Amino acid sequence: MRDLVIIGAGGFGRETIDTVRAINEIVPTWRLLGVVDDALSPNNESRLAALGVAYLGPLGSVPDDAAVAIAVGSPSTRAAILQRLDGGFDFPALVHPSTTIGSAFSHGVGLITLAGVSIGTNVRVGDHVHLNAHAVIGHDTVASDFVSINPNATVSGAVQIGEGVLVGAASVVLQGVSIAPRATVGAGACVVKDVGSHRTVKGVPAR
């Protein structure tokens, strides 16, 4: 088993703990040393304790020889954390065993998928991509680095998603749409046309 540290004690960080435990139930893979967080709240401290997971301290507490999962929901915060980390850390893919994966799937480092994710054929995702519970990623979709697809979102086929995009919970992105870097799709939105960089769209149809 390999040592693993999770960065982030919030909701996504604790759901990543569930993913790690689910992986270990199938094949013992990870020895979870604990969680680091620069701003641990009392609520998250008690929630970690209830899970039996140690709090190791702020970001500088990551052991040099441990694998690391950046389990923070905000794409921009994930990118900032990566810039702050010193040394050549290993960022493994943590894929929940219930994830279904189509043929010809490729991904970068730091991928995290939660329970029930569905990935179609010929999907490509970049580094530090988060696919939240029950997200659906359609065929031939490309998602760049630091993308977050939130719970129950559906991304149709042949969608292009730029770096740092957040696709909100229960939203739908229709086939062939392009979403430019650092845009945000609001929860429950239906995206029917391309979205520009740094734009936030919401509603049905999304505007």
Automatic annotation (TrEMBL):
Domain PglD N-terminal: 3-85
SUPFAM superfamilies per UniProt: Trimeric LpxA-like enzymes
Signal peptide: none
Keyword Transferase listed: yes
Keyword Repeat tagged: yes
Gene3D superfamilies membership: 3.40.50.20, Hexapeptide repeat proteins
Sorted UniProt keywords: Repeat, Transferase
Lineage top rank: taxon: Bacteria
Pfam families assigned to the protein according to its UniProt record, in alphabetical order: PglD_N (PF17836)
Name of the protein this chain belongs to: Acetyltransferase
Annotated source species: Nostocoides vanveenii
Organism classification: Bacteria, Bacillati, Actinomycetota, Actinomycetes, Micrococcales
